[in-house]
Design a protein that fits this description.
Low-confidence stretches: none
Shape: globular
Number of helices: 0
Radius of gyration: 13 Å
Largest sheet: 5 strands, antiparallel
Number of strands: 5
Helix content: under 10%
Order of helices and strands: EEEEE
Structural class: mainly beta
Amino acid sequence: MEGSTVKISYDDRTDLLYIRFDERKQQVANKKVSDDIVLDIGAGGKIVGIEILEASSHVELAGLLPIRYEVPKA
């Protein structure tokens, strides 16, 4: 994807890591590929995002730095 940005967000309260490949608003279908990994499938069957539950046990989070942390608005 030329000119696109991969967005990585991590919520340390829930230990959830989300990797977003496509920021366009679109309908997605969730496909569970394991107990802790869910793919968001968008238009044309392309992967829009990957959700990793219990991320700290699957991914070396320090290796993903720098990460821009965003605090969700209440």
